[in-house]
Design brief:
Helix content: 25-40%
Strand content: 15-25%
Shape: globular
Largest sheet: 10 strands, mixed
Number of helices: 16
């Protein structure tokens, strides 16, 4: 029996305190915090963990400068508090501080005096000292390809960036380490009810339908939230707006010491963020209608991204042929009037007629606060007396990575960033098979051992899972056919061990 099969059996055999539908950043955090409270938890996702919105963000952990323009000081204050928690305690290996420049051009939407006042307030909320205007020469030192024509000055402030997919995966692993049963490629096709109350779900796994019983159910399915709500009540209406955000990656061509926040109008900004030797450009904001699975980057999206980046960057950096990768995701916003760009990233938590709790919206930065808010709503259902809101380290966050000096410096740095103190576990099989230390692509630091580890310990079942959400290959523009072939061979090798797609959860002794 494979470990995945054991996890499926575990899912059908046990009665859970909490079933979480959706393994994005919110659902995985709810599962992790609930399991640490001693609850018996199941987490299922119809696709891969973090496979939708939670791996398609702008990779920013930030207060949200533009929300000051919308008057939402409370949201900015909360986001800065969470950014500090993530950077200092929760995931310091994954969340890194970086300066941001906001260039002010003649004829632009912002006046320097107004921006300076906003930056001072923003930096005060951030407990940061970076709150001044810098001149053009200093700005060009930080961002060499910054367009200087018409540039008056630049505001300077600090925020952070992260690998969003791995931050989500770290929460899944935290849930599994605390005893939760976690399973991807497991779609909820019906909700089970007892006297009109939702008490579980029927989950389709590998062609079979598995009955799951639970005292409480949380719907954290992101863009599919209303689809799951209609399983509870066919008459459930539309509770959210889906906002498509597209991004493009181009080579950075040089060292960037800061990221860029590029004003497009009085409310909307875009970003240019140095990421793994590339520049992450975006994002667009356009309402998406129809199947969430159909979201895709269109040629017009790329044209818009490059044109908006050219407001502040040398056009030679932004030629269409320099685009190495693109991706799009769907932000889940509360349904309301107005353009999606003007809708605040508030979280909506609702109870359905069967007592299922649905959670939608929010920012990546505040995911932990949102998860704790969900559990606070479930205190009576689950008999929770006290919920500890203090931050705690995710797996890999405590301690330094103990890695052999024989690894190339770039490989060591990449492993330490992605896995933290767990990096030694990733390369351990290489002691018997040195070929696992070989690069998956000659131009990047990701190695074969990472693909094997993704399959045996991180629930990866496809090359796409590995390339997009377990390594940095996709974001370096290194996802070609040869890389796919190598990864598929390593997945096939892992399958011979009977551990592929299971992760550590299936090897942990389940709680009774």
């Amino acid at each position: 029996m494979t470990n995945r099969a054991e996890a499926v059996e575990d899912l059908s055999r046990r009665r859970f305190d909490l079933l979480v539908i959706g393994g994005g950043i919110i659902g995985s955090a709810v599962a992790a915090h609930a399991a640490r409270l001693g609850l018996v938890v199941a987490l299922v996702d119809a696709h891969d963990f973090g496979g939708a919105t939670s791996s398609a963000s702008s990779k920013l952990i930030h207060g949200g400068l533009r929300y000051l323009r919308l008057g939402d000081v409370r949201l900015v204050r909360q986001a800065h508090h969470e950014r500090r928690a993530l950077t200092n305690v929760v995931a310091p290996h994954l969340v890194h501080r970086i300066p941001f420049l906001l260039p002010l051009y003649r004829g632009g939407p912002y006046r320097p005096a107004v921006v300076q006042g906003g930056i001072v307030l923003y930096s005060t909320l951030a407990l940061s000292r970076l709150n001044w205007l810098v001149d053009v020469p200093r700005a060009r030192e930080l961002v060499p390809p910054l367009r200087s024509e018409g540039l008056r000055s630049c505001a300077l402030y600090a925020d952070a960036w992260t690998n969003d997919a791995r931050l989500c995966l770290a929460n899944v692993r935290a849930a599994a380490d605390a005893g939760a049963c976690v399973l991807n490629s497991a779609k909820v096709v019906a909700l089970r009810k007892t006297q009109a109350r939702v008490t579980g779900a029927d989950v389709r796994v590998d062609g079979d339908v598995v009955p799951v019983e639970a005292r409480a159910v949380v719907n954290a399915s992101g863009p599919w939230i209303d689809e799951v709500r209609r399983l509870e009540s066919p008459s459930a209406g539309t509770s959210v707006v889906l906002d498509k955000g597209a991004h493009a990656l181009v080579p950075a061509d040089g060292e960037w010491a800061a990221a860029l926040t590029i004003p497009q109008d009085e409310v909307r900004v875009t970003f240019a963020v140095p990421l793994y030797g590339m520049l992450l450009l975006g994002t667009t904001e356009r309402v998406h209608e129809g199947d969430p699975s159909a979201v895709a980057v269109e040629p017009g999206d790329v044209e818009q991204i490059l044109a908006e980046a050219a407001v502040a960057l040398d056009p030679s950096l932004l030629a269409p042929e320099r685009v190495r990768a693109t991706f799009a995701g769907l932000r889940v916003l509360p349904a309301g009037k107005g353009e999606s760009v003007s809708i605040r990233r508030e979280t909506v938590i609702t109870r359905g007629p069967g007592a299922m709790l649905s959670v939608a919206g929010g920012k990546l930065t505040t995911y932990r606060r949102i998860a704790l808010g969900v559990l606070e709503r479930l205190r009576a259902d689950l008999g929770l007396h006290r919920i500890d809101t203090r931050p705690w380290p995710l797996p890999g966050a405590a301690g330094a990575a103990a890695l052999s000096g024989r690894l190339e410096p770039a490989v060591r740095a990449n492993l330490a960033h992605l896995y933290g103190s767990l990096a030694a576990d990733v390369v351990a099989p290489a002691s018997d098979d040195p070929a696992l230390l070989e690069a998956l692509h000659p131009e990047g630091p990701d190695i074969a051992a990472q693909a094997l580890y993704a399959a045996t310990d991180e629930w990866a079942t496809s090359a796409d899972d590995v390339i997009r959400r377990r390594t940095t290959l996709f974001y370096r523009g290194l996802a070609g056919e040869e890389v796919v072939r190598k990864v598929e061979e390593l997945l096939a090798r892992a399958a011979t061990t009977g551990r592929v797609g299971s992760g550590r959860a299936a090897r942990l002794r389940p709680r009774s």
